[in-house]
Amino acid sequence: MKTEENITFCPLFTPQAGQEAFRSITRSYYRGAAGALLVYDITRRETFNHLTQWLEDARQHSNSNMVIMLIGNKSDLESRREVKREEGEAFAREHGLVFMETSAKTAANVEEAFINTAREIYEKIQEGVFDVHNEANGIKIGPQHSPSGAGLAGNQGAAGGQGGGCC
Q1: Where is this region: Disordered (predicted)?
Q2: What is the CATH number of domain 5-130?
Q3: In the chain, what are the domain boundaries?
């Protein structure tokens, strides 16, 4: 998909036990990110239990307007589920996050998670919450930018022999 703005996403993954050193590395990714995916494993309750700490960390080290999508991953393993969908939805509601469940194995909702996050960011751009001229917001205007505001509409400008980049 081609967009007019290059949006920086910060994928956040809750580490397994013993990987707390990972936390200090992720902090550098928060700065300058317009969006983040906070992911937990629906088959491992402990990953869900650590969400509050990871969310606190993300909010402390990021732009206060950053869009955060809460992802319950491994929806393909329903028989091993330890975290109910309703629990994820309630956590997201309580903390003002966007929520969905995905399966990285089957690719179910994976693309949609990124598209929905990008859409939320784009809406904030349209509302003036993010200033596209300030790269500190995690948004960088790409070379294909046009003042039409077409945004996430797709591959405009590439058809009809009008030069333009790929992707």
Answers
A1: 147-167
A2: 3.40.50.300
A3: 5-130
